[in-house]
Design goal:
Blueprint (H helix, E strand, L loop, with lengths): L6 E6 L5 H14 L4 E5 L6 H5 L10 E2 L8 E5 L2 H12 L3 H8 L2 H9 L3 H14 L6 E5 L3 H18 L2 H6 L11 H4 L3 H13 L2 H14 L3 H15 L4 E7 L6 H13 L4 E9 L16 H21 L4 E6 L8 H15 L1
Parallel strand pairs: 1-5, 1-6, 2-4, 2-5, 6-7, 7-8
Antiparallel strand pairs: 3-4
Helix pairs in contact: 1-15, 3-4, 3-6, 4-11, 6-7, 6-12, 7-12
C-alpha cells in the first residue's frame, strides 16, 4: 500500500480510530519521501485537531508542521465551498455562474441536501487526481453508511443526470412572467392547480428550482464525465483501501459485510486494521486477587483476543493488522508519530 498505491482510502464504522490512522498513514508516507495530502470527508473534522491545522484547511491545503522527508499537507472538505468553486470553474461565463450561485434553491441544496458531501468529495478527488502536486493522497471517509455513499456517489450522480426526473425538471414550466405556463392553458382548472401548488409547495420555491436546473444544464455533461472517471479511479490499481475496525466480536459481521461490498464493487482491500485491542493481562505470581479493575482488564483482554482470532480466521487473502490500544488517544503530532511506528511494525 505505501509503496504502490497513489490513493489510500480509510473506511470503517464510527469510533474505531479511522481518522487517526489516516493521519498516521499520511505521516508515514511523508516520512518515506512522498509528497502527501491527507483529506477528510468526515463531518466531525477531527483530523484538523490531530494534525494541528485550523479552519484555513477548509479553504486550501495546509502544510503540517513536521520534519518528514517530504511535505505533508491536510485538507478539510467543505461541501459548500467545493460546490461554489466548481460552479465558478465550469460555468460557461461569469453571468451563468452568478445565476446559479445567487439562486435560493442552490443555497439550500449545497448546504443541506443529503448526498452533497459525498458528491463534492468525488469532485475534490477528481481535482486532486488531475494535479501532480502530490505523490500520494490519503482519504479519511465518514463512518460506514456514509462511506458507502461516498463510494457509490459516482454511479448515483450519473444515474440522476441520466434520469427522467431531470429531463422533466428541465422543461420550461414557467413563462417569462414567472407564471406556470403549461397549466394556465387549462383555464379555470389551470388556475386552480396553480393556486393549489402555491399553497402546498410555494410557487416561489418551484420557480427557484426550475431556474436552478435550467441554469445548471450546461454543467451536467462535465459532472457526468468526472463522476465516471472517479468511479474508475476508485477501482483502479492506483487506489487501495484500509478497512478499520475494533476487535469486539459484535463488529465482525458488519466488518465482513463492508469488506464484501468493497470486493463486489471491484475495489482493492489491502488490509484490515483491528485497532485498539486491549492487552491480555497476566497476573504475577503471588499477586493478591481481586485488585480493583484487574478483572475488567482481564475480561477486555480476553474478549479482544477472541475477536482478533475470529477476524484472522474469517478474513482470507487480506492482511490483518493487530494494533494494540495505546495508553492515551493520539491527539498531537508526537503521539501520532508513535501510532505511525506501531502501524509500520504491524505491517512488517
Amino acid at each position: 500500500m505505501l509503496d504502490d498505491r497513489r490513493f489510500i482510502v480509510t473506511v470503517g464504522s464510527g469510533g474505531v480510530g479511522k481518522t487517526t490512522l489516516a493521519a498516521a498513514l499520511a505521516l508515514e508516507s511523508a516520512q518515506r519521501g512522498f509528497r502527501t495530502l491527507v483529506m477528510t470527508f468526515d463531518p466531525s473534522l477531527r483530523l484538523k485537531d490531530t494534525l494541528g491545522v485550523g479552519e484555513a484547511a477548509r479553504l486550501a491545503d495546509v502544510r503540517v508542521d513536521t520534519d518528514t522527508r517530504a511535505p505533508l499537507h491536510a485538507s478539510l472538505l467543505d461541501a459548500r465551498t467545493t460546490f461554489d468553486r466548481l460552479i465558478e470553474r465550469y460555468a460557461p461565463d461569469e453571468a451563468a455562474a452568478r445565476r446559479i450561485l445567487e439562486n435560493r434553491f442552490y443555497a439550500q441544496l449545497s448546504g443541506t441536501l443529503s448526498g452533497v458531501l459525498e458528491y463534492m468529495a468525488v469532485e475534490r478527488l477528481f481535482e486532486v487526481a488531475a494535479s501532480d502536486a502530490y505523490d500520494r493522497v490519503v482519504l479519511d471517509t465518514p463512518p460506514t453508511r456514509q462511506a458507502l455513499d461516498f463510494l457509490e456517489a459516482p454511479a448515483r450522480l450519473t444515474g440522476f443526470l441520466d434520469s427522467g426526473a431531470l429531463r422533466i425538471a428541465l422543461k420550461p414550466w414557467f413563462d417569462e412572467r414567472g407564471r406556470l405556463g403549461k397549466v394556465r392553458r387549462l383555464g379555470p382548472l389551470g388556475r386552480g392547480i396553480e393556486a393549489f401548488l402555491d399553497k402546498v409547495v410555494g410557487l416561489g420555491l418551484l420557480r427557484d428550482m426550475a431556474e436552478f436546473f435550467q441554469a445548471f444544464a450546461p454543467l451536467y455533461e462535465g459532472f457526468r464525465t468526472r463522476a465516471g472517471e472517479v468511479g474508475a479511479l476508485l477501482r483502479s490499481a492506483a487506489t487501495g483501501f484500509l478497512l478499520v475496525t475494533r476487535p469486539e466480536e459484535d463488529r465482525v459481521a458488519e466488518t465482513l459485510f463492508f469488506a464484501r461490498r468493497l470486493g463486489d464493487a471491484g475495489h482493492h482491500l489491502d488490509a484490515l486494521a483491528v485497532n485498539m485491542r486491549h492487552p491480555e493481562v497476566t497476573t504475577r505470581p503471588g499477586r493478591r486477587t481481586g485488585v480493583a479493575g484487574e478483572a475488567l482488564m482481564t475480561w477486555l483482554g480476553d474478549r479482544d483476543r477472541r475477536g482478533l482470532d475470529r477476524f484472522r480466521a474469517l478474513v482470507t487473502g487480506t492482511r490483518v493488522l493487530d494494533l494494540p490500544l495505546m495508553p492515551e488517544e493520539p491527539a498531537d503530532l508526537v503521539s501520532l508519530d508513535a501510532l505511525r511506528q506501531r502501524l509500520v511494525d504491524a505491517w512488517a
